[in-house]
Amino acid sequence: MGKALYDVPAPAKLNLFLHLVGRRLDGYHKLETVFRFIDLQDTLNFERRNDGQIVRAQETLSGLAAEDDLMVRAARLLQQATGTSYGVELDCIKRIPAGGGLGGGSSDAASTLIALNKLWETGLSRGQLMRLAVQLGADVPVFVFGQNAFATGIGEQLRAVSLSPAWYTVVQPNAFVSTAEVFADKGLTRNSKSVIITFFDGWQVASRNESKKETSSLLFGKNDMEPIACKNHVALDAVIRILRNNNLHVRMTGSGSCVFVEYDNFTTATSQNRRISGKLLNLTHGRKLLVKGQWLCQGLDYHPLYSWLK
To answer: CB count, 10 Å around CB of 100?
Structure first.
């Protein structure tokens, strides 16, 4: 063993809106979205090995094969790209729920690339790491980019965007939404009108005064995947309906199943978060609870590891 990096953060993200604007010839969907980092995060640990082996701590992501672990794949990709002789022992303390549309696996992969670039002293730039990141998944590059971003293409074409301070109630319904299932649904629309970043910026300014009249912040646009996910998952649909019936602006993030409500100040966020808990606590559908988890999160301006790259 050699050097180590402990308590490396891997933050979750929200898609503040998600518009599908077309489909490429290769089958990938063209989208427009704004990614926002939040302070719900996984914690990663890395111990450098001198034998070139990439191994996982025993307790890391039990039940997930190494070939499917994005941290392992990220480490192998960086190792192959740079020719380093170092290896690593990886450990992950999971807090971001898997399959919730919060980008936990993608964030873990990006933090692995950033941390090992430092630990292995491979010296790649942010741009070089982003080119590796896209090979691991469309959501991975934004975490390497390190700033809240307006994304186009398949989500890999990024422009930094300035977002107002905000807090979020994030709710995880008791449902697992398959991204592939949503994309394969014949009812999914892919013809949302394209928007430009300056239009989103202008909407933010115009909506601030209007939002002050509301229980929660107004939300730009829509999530084109939300109606399909709700149609196929009763718990998700029920949670969204309950929150909307309580005059809250709620949206699904990514392909689900997590949803969020945005607030422009901490005091309102705290009181409304308690109110949401009261509305959703112990509600069931059949014998299952409607909600698996709930978090009060702060929006971040930058990824916690932003300063680690140039």
So the answer is: 26
DSSP, res 254: T
User: One-letter amino acid identity for 292?
Assistant: K
Q: How far apart are CA 138 and CA 308, in angstroms?
A: 22
Average pLDDT over residues 170-178: 93
Instruction: Tell me the two tokens of residue 86.
Output: 């170092």
Give residue-wise pLDDT tens across range 82-129.
999 999 999 999 999 998 999 999 999 999 999 999 999 999 999 999
Question: For 143-158, b where at least 16 C-beta lie within 10 A, e where not — what string?
Answer: bbbbbbbbbbbbbbeb
Coil, strand or helix at 2: coil
Which residues carry out catalysis?
Answer: 13, 139
176 vs 189: CA distance, rounded Å: 21
Burial 198-234, CB ≥16 within 10 A → b, else e = eebeeebeebeeebeeeebbbbebebbbbbbbbebbb
Tracing tokens 């309580």 back to the chain, one arrives at 246
Q: What percent of the chain has pLDDT over 70?
A: 96
Q: What angle do CA 220, 106, 277 make, to 5 degrees?
A: 55
Structure tokens that stand for 124 in this block:
């790649």
- The tens digit of pLDDT for each residue in 52-77 reads 999 998 655 556 777 889 999 999 99
Cα–Cα distance for residue pair 121/297, rounded to 1 Å: 33
> DSSP per residue over 46-92, as a string?
EEEESS--EEE-TTTTTT--GGG-HHHHHHHHHHHHHT---EEEEEE
pLDDT band at residue 269 using 50, 70 and 90 as cut-offs: very high
**Which one-letter DSSP state was computed for residue 302?**
B
Q: Let me know the angle formed at the C-alpha of 188 by 197 and 228, rounded to the nearest 5 degrees.
A: 100
Nearest-CA neighbor of 31 among 40, 23, 39? Answer: 23
